[in-house]
Design a protein that fits this description.
Layout (H helix, E strand, L loop, with lengths): L4 H8 L3 H8 L3 H8 L7 H11 L3 H16 L2
Length: 73
């Protein structure tokens, strides 16, 4: 399984609505990010990673690499 925000959320058993509340964003915004329709800003990434139990420096390169690969298609 690829490491994506959506896959991590699903593995944790979080609904889109629950995750959006934890991330302090609306459901539409989180869905746009998970579907690669928009790129999260620094504060959004930091908040999501904190709630997921990751440190920014450990995973941000992986997330942005995944986004870059998706958009380069």
């Amino acid at each position: 399984m690829r490491l994506t925000l959506k896959n991590i959320r699903l593995k944790k058993g979080w609904s889109l609505e629950n995750a959006a509340k934890l991330y302090n964003m609306n459901v539409k915004r989180l869905k746009e990010i998970e579907e690669y329709k928009d790129v999260p800003d620094f504060l959004e990434v930091r908040t999501m990673l904190k709630m997921l139990g990751f440190y920014y420096t450990e995973i941000v390169a992986t997330i942005y690499d995944d986004i870059g690969q998706h958009y380069s298609k």
